[in-house]
Amino acid sequence: MKKSLFTLALLMLVGFYINAQQVEFEEFDLDNGLHVILHQDNTAPVVITSVMYDVGGKDLGGKAETGFRTGFAHFFEHLLFEGSENIERGEFMKIIPANGGTFNANTSQDRTYYYEIFPSNKLELGLWLESERMLHPVIDQVGVDTQNEVVKEEKRQRYDAPYGKLLEVIGENLFEAHPYKYPNIGFMEDLDASTLEEFYAYFDKYYSPSNAVLIVAGDIESGETKEMVKKYFNAVKRRPDFVRDFPKEKPITETKKVTAYDANIQIPAIIAAYKLPGQAERDAYVLDMISTYLSGGKSSVLYKKIIDEQKQALTVQAVNLGQVDHNIFALFALPQGDVSLDTLLEEMDEEIAKMQTELISERDYQKLLNQYENQFVNSNSSVAGIANSLARYYMLYGDVNLINTQLDLYRSITREEIRDVAKKYLSPNQRVEIQYLPKKDEE
Q1: Distance of alpha carbon 335 from alpha carbon 351, whole angstroms
Q2: Domain 256-438: which topology?
Q3: CA atoms within 13 A of residue 320's CA, in its CB half-sphere
Q4: Contact in structure between 333 and 350 (CB atoms under 8 Å)
Q5: How many Cα neighbours within 13 Å face the side chain of 411?
Q6: Helix axes 123-135 and 222-233, enclosed angle (nearest 10)
Q7: 213 has pLDDT over 80
Q8: First CA to last CA across the chain, in angstroms?
Q9: How many helices (H) and strands (E) does the chain have?
Q10: How confident is the model at residue 65 (pLDDT cuts 50, 70, 90)?
Q11: Closest Cα to residue 438, out of 341, 322, 321?
Q12: How far apart are CA 33 and CA 361, in angstroms?
């Protein structure tokens, strides 16, 4: 009886803790189309100002006459720190730490995200900085040349590192028509060939207020913050809206086998990649759970089997990479000793085949739900995490309230659904198999 009462109390406590994560927010639009989301949390004297733009690596620069250019969105992530009409070159990154703040930015295939975290008495400064970036950044040849070298150095450090080209190799072989086939950082020859006019045109098209969402979260007062937002962002003029019209991808119906080489690796790898529905689709959530079941931690089935028990691999992963138009589901493994790549793929396929015909155990299912509850709570445990979530759910999912309801969606997925989705999408004839090998002199 005591044990039952303790269990009940524990469940009530867990339920209270999760329900207590309800995130309150307020939304409104400026006349220029800028969408604004406010989240008030006065528990700590910290505020974050962030802007997510609906532009990413899939949005090419240039034009048909001169050639389309890859890597523009990532390049702008750097370029828009150069300065503005009211901020001298290089001062942007000095002003923030001088006022007790931190900052960063990042770019994916689908969006670009800038943020600053300040003591709450510097809220107005954060809003001014982001409005300057949107209103009148300085885009000139000096800045372009400077950031061109910065991007090239980033490519050398990250993309030319061992296995740094994995996503590039997957993209170019998995996609035939969609610009997801190009690397997010782009090709350096494209950036070298780009003109100032092309950069101006890109900014005018994608950095319109109607193509962005502003998040202000933390120790704020809603009414006062609204007035500040209007003060700094109303001056930004709305520019023409646009409609994306990417070529449609054909489904893969026959296994595609590819060999790729990398001079920066010594151990070969096997990759099996699938082109799947976009991240907002229900099936994408199920595939998240499938990837976690397969390789989410040392107790996952692939880790226990291939690394712990059979000692066939140095590492093994199943990843469901979320993207707006198409997710990428990929199996990846590095062999131990002289184990063949074919053997590793067979072992991974064996576990997927089990999922396609049998229900995962109730214990494993409950473990999955626990992992997602923990992940969900952690993602909203800081003001910065909440701001990021609010921006992503609005921009990439079209539903801001997912910050409160997404966990319920995961909880609603059944073991039968996991089996059926694995069967629907993860057959060998629906994928690209890549042998990723060390490059030899003659190759």
Answers
A1: 17
A2: Cytochrome Bc1 Complex; Chain A, domain 1 (3.30.830)
A3: 24
A4: no
A5: 11
A6: 30
A7: yes
A8: 70
A9: 16, 13
A10: confident
A11: 341
A12: 49
Question: How far from chain centre, in Å, is Cα 245?
Answer: 21
Contact 35, 212 (CB under 8 A): yes
* pLDDT of 66: 83
Q: Are 25-233 and 256-438 equal in CATH topology?
A: yes
Average pLDDT across the chain, whole number: 93
Cβ-contact 336, 268 below 8 angstroms: no
> What element of type H or E holds 143?
helix 141-154
| pLDDT in the model for residue 18 | 41
Alpha-carbon distance 228 to 232, whole Å? 6
Identify which of 346, 214, 202, 338 has the alpha carbon closest to the alpha carbon of residue 272.
346
How far is Cα 289 from Cα 276, in angstroms, rounded to an integer? 14
CB atoms within 10 A of CB 228: 18
pLDDT at residue 68, as a whole number: 94
Domain boundaries, the chain: 25-233, 256-438
- What confidence tens digit (pLDDT) does each residue in 116-133 have? 999 999 999 999 999 999
What gap in Å lies between CA 138 and CA 84, rounded to an integer?
5
Tell me what percent of the residues of the chain surpass a pLDDT of 90: 89
Give yes or no for a contact between 40 and 221, defined as CB atoms under 8 angstroms apart: yes
Please state, in angstroms and rounded to a whole number, the distance separating the CA atoms of residues 190 and 148. 11
Return the CATH class of domain 25-233: alpha beta
- Spatial CB neighbours of 15, under 8 Å, sequence gap ≥ 6: none
Contacts of residue 405, Cβ cutoff 8 Å, sequence gap at least 6: none
d(CA 132, CA 84): 6
Q: Is the pLDDT of residue 410 over 50?
A: yes
Decide: 224 and 400 in contact? Cβ < 8 Å.
Answer: no
Cα–Cα nearest to 99, from 49, 167, 159: 49
User: What letter represents residue 176's amino acid?
Assistant: E
Query: In this structure, are residues 273 and 329 in contact, taking their beta carbons and an 8 Å threshold?
Result: yes
